[in-house]
């Protein structure tokens, strides 16, 4: 690294520290029954490697393993160092008692791994506006907290009417709505306005597909360009915090962690096994550095890299499995799913990225400076075969695109080069 680059790197780090911006990932503790310390350690180490600052620990009120797993999580985070945790009380999966919430916060508020703001333990939720009147008692019994709930059911205007209770808000609005192909940042802007200077935590997700009919869940949210679009919106909005939704929710195909078979819920194995998402993390070091520095003009931390994500079957290759386009939608997911290989490249300068399907190839040129570029290679029922992505003389082979299936799986496989 040249002297100029070292000086620039120090400036970027100073700007990041001064901004106070942090990136968290949503971690489903409910999936960790009998999970080992080694697994927690692996998750924390791999999250740190890509620039993630901590986990929001989603938990329900009735899982018998919660406290054992929290103990392992905090132990692993303390051992790793420079990695934080905070509780995210899931208010949609059962009734939390005040003494439960107080006891859990008090148990870990002194841990060096506990995320804190102005000395107050950081606390979040998934939903729970009906529980709002209990937070005053929680504050009193814990010596105060820094509360940033996700009350997305209220919408930003509804949250804006409860500012006396909260220190900020987290928006779960991270996917295109039914019938929409792209994600908008409109609601993020409204949140920032309604919060009137209080902290805003923006939800960012790479993907969404779930087919768990026993839980009345069977929809796909358009995700062809979502990972790219949402991070560009982060760099535009510059929220106080970002929360990646999710680290490990395999049942909703929003995971970016390495696949953990023991965490996959019943019914999801058929669309999670052989659908790795860990390559989504490859572009995070640059994106997170840019977000924290408040500018996309930062040095690329590492080598040029590119990722590609795609479905392994065209959207109309077979029956749609009754999957709908978006939550609450009525149209088939096949109407909203575009048959493309999505490519996201982070490079120091102008170079070529080549993508092939079978014998067909497309090449894309990245821009002349360190940046994030996005490309798409379309395919259809007549464009099938093995997939490759090539960059700077390196080539990665991905699973083939095929029409040989009984029902279309709308999850994506992700590869990197």
UniProtKB/TrEMBL annotation:
Pfam families: Glyco_hydro_71. GO terms for molecular function: glucan endo-1,3-alpha-glucosidase activity. Keywords: Hydrolase. This is Glycoside hydrolase. Gene3D superfamilies: Glycosidases.
């Amino acid at each position: 690294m040249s002297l100029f680059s070292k000086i620039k790197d120090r400036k970027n780090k100073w700007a990041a520290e001064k901004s106070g911006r942090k990136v968290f990932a949503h971690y489903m503790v409910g999936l960790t029954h009998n999970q080992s310390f080694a697994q927690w350690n692996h998750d924390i180490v791999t999250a740190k490697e890509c620039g993630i600052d901590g986990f929001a620990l989603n938990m329900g009120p009735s899982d018998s393993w919660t406290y054992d797993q929290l103990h392992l999580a905090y132990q692993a985070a303390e051992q790793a160092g420079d990695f934080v945790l905070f509780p995210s009380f899931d208010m949609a999966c059962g009734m939390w008692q005040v003494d439960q919430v107080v006891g859990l916060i008090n148990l870990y508020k002194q841990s060096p791994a506990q995320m804190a703001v102005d000395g107050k333990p950081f606390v979040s939720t998934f939903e729970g506006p009906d529980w709002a009147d209990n937070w005053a008692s929680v504050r009193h019994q814990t010596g105060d907290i820094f509360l940033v709930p996700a009350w997305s059911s209220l919408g930003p205007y509804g949250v804006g009417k409860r500012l006396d209770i909260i220190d900020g808000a987290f928006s779960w609005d991270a996917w295109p709505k039914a019938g929409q192909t792209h994600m908008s940042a409109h609601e993020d802007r409204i949140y920032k306005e309604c919060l009137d200077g209080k902290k805003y935590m923006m939800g960012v997700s790479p993907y969404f597909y779930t087919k768990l009919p026993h839980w009345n869940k069977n929809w796909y949210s358009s995700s062809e360009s979502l990972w790219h679009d949402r991070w560009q919106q982060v760099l535009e909005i510059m929220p106080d915090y970002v929360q990646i939704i999710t680290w490990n929710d395999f049942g909703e195909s929003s995971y970016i962690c390495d696949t953990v078979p023991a965490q996959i819920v019943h019914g999801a194995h058929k669309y999670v096994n052989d659908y790795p998402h860990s390559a989504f993390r490859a572009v995070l070091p640059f994106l997170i550095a840019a977000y924290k520095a408040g500018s996309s003009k930062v040095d690329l931390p590492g080598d040029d890299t590119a990722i590609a994500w795609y479905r392994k079957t065209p959207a109309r290759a077979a029956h749609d499995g009754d999957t709908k386009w978006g939550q609450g939608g009525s149209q088939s997911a096949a109407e909203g799913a575009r048959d493309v290989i999505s490519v996201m490249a982070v490079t120091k300068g102008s170079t070529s990225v080549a993508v092939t399907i079978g014998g067909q190839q497309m090449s894309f040129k990245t821009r002349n400076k360190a940046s994030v570029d996005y490309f798409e290679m379309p395919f259809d029922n007549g464009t099938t075969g093995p997939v490759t992505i090539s960059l700077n003389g390196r080539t990665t082979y991905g699973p083939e695109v095929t029409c040989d299936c009984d029902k279309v799986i709308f999850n994506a496989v992700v590869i990197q080069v």
